[in-house]
Design goal:
Alpha-Beta Plaits, Beta-Lactamase, flat, about 20% strand, alpha+beta
């Protein structure tokens, strides 16, 4: 061991010197601050004590206006150590100042002490004394020399003692341990020179020495054991070489399987509903080649039958797949309900225990088979199977794990297929409902006529092309509801709606825009034609002869207000003019029509 290279003693020396120096500096600083604060307090107490002692005499001299005596007293205060200025200011204008003026106060260097002067309980003046801290600083710096010398000497002595103890109690003994450790060499198996003795004291280093000797003995024993184990491992290594080769083949197979699983999963994920069958066929062909089998089948349980979703066979003369009834394979399905994996490496093994499955497999030419359940939770959806027609399956546990993952991928594909199918059905249902809602939004539920919104759109469009607007109102309809009831009133509205629709001209839009109010928008027509339309509607309603005891006519009648749209510039204006004509028809006795504000059919005419 080279003590000059990263020596612990050197590091410890530096650490001790550094810590001791820092501690000594901190100690001196604390002592200096403490001495400074104590000196300031002592000076302040001395000034206050002396000043308070002469305050009565000072008050008497001030009261007697004895200026020489006042100056002598102030001079005596100024001789107190650390006092740089004295000032006396009375209430009647007497002012005496000695030394440094208080107006020149430096808050860092000076401290101002003010004492009130009383005479017979009367405040007659204020005594101000200026304390100079520089004198205190000078005294402290003189003391600092002795403090530094004392603490430095104490620190050096402490460092020397610690290093001496460190060297003889630790460093020399550690060097012994180092020499002993360097002498250990197991390459040639030789023992350590007996002259190398370790300190076996009762302290920690002695315990380390004992532990090092015991470790040396254990290492020698372990070395012998290791050499024995190496010879044994060499024999086993030769035996394991064949196993490694088999494991290498297995790993290569698993790599191919995982690569195919990733490829199939991506294709399944991106497949559209129309591409599902093609992707499943691709999967079965690739799986058959990888598994070295003659047949791969993907079966689904649908409506009590086993439906083949895909069937791959290696030889062209294989029997074609066909759907079978689940009852023919009841025991097989029961097994898949209880276990997700069934492997039959040779069907002769189940000839006695499961004759039904044996006969079926024998019939289709299967000699060994492995099946994996495709499930959605607890629901069995189908089976993924691989089979050989000649010889047993070369099966191992890793194949079961891989095939289970493939079955899971098929399950996810089927679940997504069902969800997309269901989504398509829901979209179609939503479109149907939207169409129905759209129709209901523009249709009056009671009469089946158009409601106000599409009527307003048609009227606005008709304003540009010209046309006519008819507002039709059932006379005394409130009385009819009060007399016959709302159900009968609804029946009357439905009958009138059907009649008006049947009697309206071609290309006319009939709408119910209020409780008993209808409106009609028709293409432009001659005034005479418009009169005939109104007359036709009035007569048709009269001929219904719907009883109405609330009307002076005894049956249900209509009032019509019609306008031509040539002079109308907005829907609001057209509706307003038509309402005015309708109101006039009501005023003229009802059962009549008014066109553009002019009655053309006096009440009482054209009656049936």
């Amino acid at each position: 061991m080279n003590p000059r290279v990263n020596s612990i003693s050197g590091k410890v020396t530096l650490m001790i010197v550094g810590v001791s120096s820092v501690f000594a500096v901190l100690t001196m600083l604390v002592q200096l601050v403490w001495n400074y604060l104590d000196a300031v307090d002592n000076a302040q107490n001395e000034i206050q004590g002396y000043s308070e002692l002469i305050l009565p005499s000072l008050a008497q001299a001030l009261w007697d206006a004895d200026t020489p005596l006042l100056k002598d007293m102030l001079t005596s205060i100024g001789r107190v150590p650390s006092v740089s200025g004295v000032e006396l200011a009375s209430r009647d204008g007497v002012y005496i100042q000695l030394g440094q003026h208080t107006d020149q106060l430096d808050t860092v260097r000076h401290k101002l002490i003010q004492l009130p002067v009383y005479y017979d309980g009367l405040h007659i003046a204020t005594l101000s004394v200026l304390l100079d801290r520089n004198d205190i600083y000078l005294t402290l710096w003189q003391q600092m020399i002795f403090i530094v010398l004392g603490n430095g000497l104490k620190t050096l002595v402490m460092i020397f003692v610690i290093l001496y103890l460190l060297k003889h109690l630790i460093m020399l003994r550690l060097q012994q341990l180092s020499v002993f450790a360097d002498a250990i060499s197991l390459s040639d198996g030789e023992r350590i020179d007996r002259s190398l003795r370790l300190d076996r004291g009762d302290d920690e280093i002695g315990q380390v020495g004992l532990a090092l000797e015991r470790m040396y003995q254990r290492i020698r024993s372990d070395l012998a054991l290791i050499r024995h184990q190496q010879r044994k491992l060499a024999r086993r290594g030769r035996a394991l070489s064949h196993t490694v080769a088999r494991q290498d083949d297995l790993l290569n197979w698993l790599a191919r399987a995982n690569q195919l699983l990733a490829q199939v999963s991506l294709r399944f994920l991106s497949a559209s509903p129309t591409e599902v069958s093609r992707e499943v066929d691709f999967f079965t062909a690739e799986l058959g080649a990888m598994m070295n089998v003659e047949r791969v089948a993907v079966m689904a349980f649908v409506d009590g039958r086993v439906e083949y979703r895909s069937f791959w066979f290696k030889h062209a003369d294989a029997l074609p797949a066909k759907d079978v009834i689940i009852d023919n394979l009841a025991l097989l399905k029961e097994k898949f309900d209880s276990s997700n994996t069934i492997v039959v490496e040779d069907i002769e093994q189940i000839r006695e225990t499961d004759p039904l499955e044996y006969n079926y497999m024998k019939q289709v030419g299967i000699s060994s088979v492995a099946g994996f359940a495709i499930t959605d939770g607890d629901l069995l959806l189908g089976i993924l199977s691989v089979a050989r027609t000649e010889g047993p399956l070369e099966w191992f546990a890793e194949k079961s794990a891989v095939l289970t993952q493939f079955a899971t991928a098929l399950n996810e594909l089927w679940v997504r297929e069902r969800r997309e199918k269901r989504m398509l059905e829901l979209q179609q249902e939503l479109m149907r409902v939207n169409v129905q809602l759209a129709e209901e939004a523009v249709t009056d539920a009671l009469t089946g006529l158009t409601n106000r919104r599409p009527f307003t759109d048609r009227l606005e469009a008709q304003l540009e092309d010209g046309g006519v607007l008819l507002m039709v109102d059932v006379d005394y309809f409130k009385r009819y509801n009060d007399t016959y009831g709302h159900v009968a009133g609804d029946d009357v509205l439905k009958k009138l709606a059907a009649l008006l629709k049947a009697e309206s001209p071609d290309s006319t839009l009939l709408a119910r825009i209020g409780g008993e109010e209808f409106a009609m928008v028709a293409p432009l027509m001659e005034p005479a034609e418009l009169e005939r339309v109104c007359d036709k509607l009035l007569i048709a309603v009269r001929r219904l002869q719907l009883p109405h005891v609330g009307s002076h006519l005894g049956y249900v009648t209509l009032s019509i207000g019609a306008v031509t749209l040539e002079d109308c510039h907005s829907v609001r204006e057209a509706m307003s003019k038509a309402d005015a004509s309708l109101y006039l028809a009501k005023e003229l006795g009802r059962d009549s029509a008014v066109i553009n504000g002019t009655p053309y059919n006096p009440p009482g005419e054209w009656r049936a």
